[in-house]
Design a protein that fits this description.
Blueprint lengths: L19 H78 L7 H24 L17
Helix pairs in contact: 1-2
């Protein structure tokens, strides 16, 4: 039956007319034709599903690549901001140091605390999604208390 031809070598059962073989061939040919139509519709549906699936996978991959690129850019900007904050903290400490003749352990602790605070602030802002503090990079005047 794979070639689409139905054999009609069956003998006519006793009591049936001579058109039995012709009618049987017509019925089987009609069934085969309907099957082939449904098979074609099924194959077309599978092809369309494959195209849709491939498009979805491609779109998802593009979205993932864009998200990764954005994450890398954000991390780069946050690192630059952290360095800027550390530079500002070190600059503030340098101004204070110019007023004294030597660096003491207390001064080193102040610098370490300022750098740590600046990096912590940037990381906290990055974790919460808020923009970094002091985006302009302007140095706030030191307050004395």
């Amino acid at each position: 039956m794979s070639d689409g031809v139905v054999g009609t070598t069956a003998t006519v059962p006793p009591g049936l007319n001579e058109n039995y073989a012709l009618n049987l061939k017509f019925i089987l040919d009609s069934i085969l034709e309907r099957f082939q139509e449904f098979q074609q519709k099924y194959d077309d549906g599978v092809d369309q599903s494959r195209v849709t699936f491939n498009k979805l996978v491609t779109d998802a991959q593009n979205a993932a690549n864009l998200a990764l690129l954005n994450a890398v850019n954000n991390a780069d900007l946050m690192a630059k901001q952290a360095i800027r904050h550390a530079d500002i903290a070190a600059s503030n400490q340098l101004v204070e140091q110019q007023q004294t003749a030597e660096i003491t352990d207390d001064d080193i602790n102040k610098i370490s605390q300022a750098v740590t605070a600046a990096i912590t602030a940037v990381l906290a802002n990055m974790a919460t999604g808020r923009p970094p503090a002091n985006v302009t990079g302007a140095v706030k005047p030191a307050t004395t208390s």
